Amino acid sequence: MDFFSAIQYVLFAAIVTALVKPLGGYMERVFSRQRTVLDRFCLPVERLIYRITFADPNMEMTGKEYATCFVLLGLAGTLLLYAILRLQQFLPWFFPQYHTTSLSPDLALNTAISFSTTTTWQAYAGENTMSYFSQMVGLCAQNFLAGAAGLAVGVAFIRGLARQLSDTLGNFWADLTRALLWILLPGALIGALLLVGQGVPMNFRPYTIATTVEGTKQVIPQGPVAALEIIKNLGTNGGGFFNANGAHPNENPTPLSNFLEMLAIVLLPAAFTNTFGRRVGQPRQGWLLYGVMLLLFICGLVFVHHFEQRGFPNIRNLDSRHINRLQSGGNMEGKEVRFGIGGSTLAAVVTSNTATGSNNSMDDSYTPLGSMVLLTNMLLGELVFGGLGTGIYSMVIAAAIAVFLAGLMVGRTPEYLGKKIGPAENKMIMLYALAAPLVILPLTAIAVSSRAGLSGLTVNGGPHGFTGILFAYTSCFANNGQSFAGLSANSPFYNLTTAAAMMVGRFGLAIPALAFASLFARQRNTPSSSGTLPTHSLVFGVLLTTCLIVMVALSYLPALALGPVLERLLLGR
Q1: Is the overall model pTM greater than 0.85, yes or no?
Q2: pLDDT tens-digit profile of 175-190?
Q3: Long-range pairs for 320-323 at CB < 8 Å and ≥24 separation?
């Protein structure tokens, strides 16, 4: 690993770690209605919203009511966005000479579900498809609402674990409003100003026509890019204003803007571990979960950088070695020169570990083992930082599985945070754990064995094509949105099947998580004894990490063997 990439990685991890505690404390104060620095500006707006909507922020909701509100908001957002996309040619800022890709009913539905579930899977080129109105009023608004809804569910989950003898988890609409006003809107405003300072455009001008040196005409898209760019990262949504996503210079012009955008993705999910520790009254629990996240994140960085720096084995003697600091060597196919392997690896690992498919390089061009690491990050289940809210409950449920397995080994009833994990809790855990393989693997099998699925492989075939299909369904289920460019996904088959994966990945995981939290909220804390497994120790951290790796291997190793592993073996020949 070269010196500059190592410095970038270390600096990134250090900044995130340093901000976990202050940001986690701030979010804990926001959602527990303690005093914050933004109360002067946000409280009047909050009261106005409640007055207009007739919402009662003090009315507590059961887990079932909370989940119902969460699903209804997603459904309403999907229908509204679908209407905007289907009618965009009649709405402002639509340029028919440039927006030439038609939004068919199945593509519009796929896109609406994609953005209302924070997946932002895009089977279209943004600058050729979406009007400014669709981008701002449709996509950008859903990025805020869907991100805030995920954050609210995460808060309710933590609240359930912290409460005793309670049937309620809080108020969804109050949590949603506070997530928007106190966290996402201020963060997006500050982040957008930083991006504009780096050269990201923020305007509503028509596309610019430039004449090149050769005398040809070139269309340079304009638009409110900074507004969409920051919230897609801060809200762990992903997607892009342009088809090239974070590789486009108008979305991500400099290495500094790339670094800032990656920080925007990770900071809130990472800090949520500290919020969790504070709310349950055991800060060490939060630091243990963050430590496991950080360890897996660093392993991903090291492995991906190593595989990309080595390059492909059949051309390694030509370009794989790092020659000097101005010439990276390695596998630079599909990567921006201004980011190099270091900046590309950082973005790839950050986005594949979170629900943010905001890539700045082409996943399709990574080495087989490099792409396998990115795929594995998503198969872990959005728990290495993860999305807003989803990361913390994914990690806690993984910890509950580890506690259950440890309890079986020693013959004791498993406990977590002083509460028993009984049959009802185990049912929710199993529903959560089995959802991913029961969706990803059957959909992949149907795609690789049907004419409609194979027709999407217009460029790649064999193991690489199989990896592309597996990557697509994994990304959609993980609400991530990244894809292999070699898969042509704009067809009724892929638009409908990926939309189904997105829905299950969003609501099929959140509902069992809220049910699990409700079951915990009804219990009374029991004091720890000599037989209680300490879940904040280094030993438990090792057990949790091992558990995660083994679960992924048991569920997906055959699929990985047919895809990236087989491709690497064939290249070695």
Answers
A1: yes
A2: 999 999 999 999 999 9
A3: 322/2
